[in-house]
Task: structure prediction
Amino acid sequence: MLPKSELFARLAAGATVVTPNRRLAQALLREFDAFQIGRNLAVWEAPDILPFGAFAGRLYEEAYYAGRGELKTLLTPGQEEQIWRQVIAASGLLVLDGAAARCREAWNLSHAWRIRLVAGNDDARAFQDWAAQYLKRTAGEVDAARLPDLLLEGSNLETPKAIVAYAFDILPPQTREFLDACRARGAQVDECRPEAKPSRAVRAAYRSAKEELDAAAAWARGRLEANPAARIGVVVPDLEERRREVARVFSRVMRPGFNLPGAGQAAMPFNLSIGIPLLQYPVVALALLVLEFSQGNLSFEQVSRLVRSPFLRGAEKEAAARAQLDLRLRRKLGATVSLPKLIANAEPAPILRGLLEKIYLLKNEKSQAPSAWARHVSVLLDAAGFPGERAPDSAEFQARAKWHEALGELGKLDRVAGSLSPREFLLALRRLCADTLFQPESAADTPVQVLGILESAGAGFDHLWVSGLTDEAWPLKARPNPFLPVAAQKAAGIPEAGAEGSLALDRRITEGWLGAADEVVFSFFNHAADRELAPSPLILSVEEKNLEIPAFSTFRDLVFSKRNIRTLEDSVGPAVTATQIKGGTRVLSDQSACPFRAFARWRLQAEPLQAPADGLDAAKRGTLVHALMKNLWGFLKDSSALQANFDSFIEKAADLAVKELELEGRFAELERARLARLARDWLEVERQRPAFEVVSIEKSQAFNVAGIEFSGRIDRMDRLSTGGHALIDYKTNRNPSPKSWEPPRPDDPQLPLYAVAAKEEIAAVAFAKVRPGELRFMGFSQEKNAMPKVNPAKNWKSLLNDWKSEAEALGGAFAAGAARVDPKRELATCRYCAMHALCRVYEKVNVLAETPEEGEE
Ligand code: SF4
Result:
């Protein structure tokens, strides 16, 4: 075993160092550079440090270009996976997504650990068949799994003079055989492990995972401020699942206020070792959207993103025009949008329209080779002016480079995939971007490294914090590959295959952490959901202590500490000076639900963005029924018409209603028939009433409340043979109820308002519930039996008085400028309100309920 102290001398002398993974290679490279700087060198040759797989690939290339031996063609990882996919698809079995990647993994393992493929359970049997097919398909080629063996054949291999295998916990048999063969061919081959540092280790307990993460971030910042040159590691075992949370907490702690406008884009002092799927980077998502749109329709939500995207030509110049266009499209387009339809409507943004036309002209419906598709995508994106004029930030720039790499990778599938249809190519590209985890590179000297368990093994730091070491999480459970018999994996010595091997491996990793830094903190949390947790048995020997974690100010603290705070009264706006207000009775319903909602909507004219939906939504269905009833009673006039044959009126009223809503084709026919059925059933309800005459339909009426004139429209007013008039409001929703008229703060004050403002004598107010299967009146009347299912009020006069006082109170508050964020039923009222961004009610709730978060990643 080569001592670590000699490793750098070997490297400086030109030795090749191979590592188990890329991260360890990079970590060793950084250590080597620091070592050279420590020797006061200004320049030095880049050391030869690389993962074992990349080492084998390089030897292959050298042999290939030197023309040594008859070398088979080396498949790329993408080509390998494509062949596995084809083999699995040809088997006719229903296989889950990701099976091809798991098969490739099993194939690599079986070669690295010399496992003979034998039938085991169903999965292993299926894999054995697939592997046989795969072997046939790749007879003239070689893959990464078989490459080291191929290199050892004949005269293929010319090894470096000195090789060091660094930080391998266990050398898999294939790697060992390969290195032995190199030694036999004259190379000096050694092994070297990171040297354990004498460390101060403590164990720390926290109440929850969140508290633990906050503490780890504050600790890292404290250590960094004490020594800006320190190398700090924080291990988060479930980093992949908690990546967003980790990024948010570290950003908030390391740089409070990091996400404020104008805070700048300076690099953070920490780096996460695990990326997110390439597909989730907005620049890549947009590129895929352009390709998808060139081939077919998009949802409106996707089209809206495309129109507002900063990654298309003219995005800066036409920013305002495109925002306006988006608003207009919401009224004009349906839920699904074709490219020609968007072009036809894109007039207000001529640059956008021009590039959409170019994309349309490049539409390709023919199948072609993946490399031709890759070229086509580049041409398409060029036509779209991708990625726009704005200077990209570092993450965008790198994500775009990775996207080009992914396209290039797909382009290499020609030899294994044949030609692909537009759909197949899009699917393959999407899959590749979803499977590619990408993390923009941070500066090599980023001081705080946040790592998963695997990436942490073998890395060295000045300070190391390993979190999440509960008895449930550590040691890890056995995790054998599902496609290889478990017994064979255990017999081969794969540590993760069985409980014992896994325990031994995790014990070695724990010991490795203990020697990886001068200061080591092992932490765990003792509450999760509804269970109590204990520290992992592997860290019980480490003494538990209360760590002193510096308390850093949050952004809120910083703002308050400036003491430059003015208190603004935002619960009252200026009083209304106009004598007329748009919005009618909806103003008072909003005022009743939440004063801020009424203020925002009717004083500030804030309107939520509507998203188009296909077919009829609930509001349009309601409008259709209103149109039906308006037309029907326009023909019938009074209850005497119900004694004659009214079928022709029903047909005419239904026909007019669908025309008014501009419904067309088969859809219009269906709606017409549905409305006619509904009208027939509804008139049976009307037949039960004492005689009446319809005196007004959808009549506009102005009424004055608290000095402001509101205008409204009454669905219908009938003169009753029992005396007085009835106000009728058609309802198509599931649960209309006269309870919604009850003060204080009635949910639906419309009918009460009309009742108190009407010039006629009102003797009944009623909802007419017109829903198939649920047809009835409901409401209150002055006398008994005025209308079926409409109950006589206990005291009609006092009911009208109560309604009048409530209307005055609501109108008075609105007129005075009341704007308090005060939803009637707290967050239940907010659920369907679109003013969240303006009233910030959820922030208010969060502030009251828990520690504030300062925004998403
Ligand atoms: S979201 Fe809630 S608090 Fe905000 S305006 Fe709407 S109802 Fe009021």
Observations:
- The radius of gyration is 36 Å.
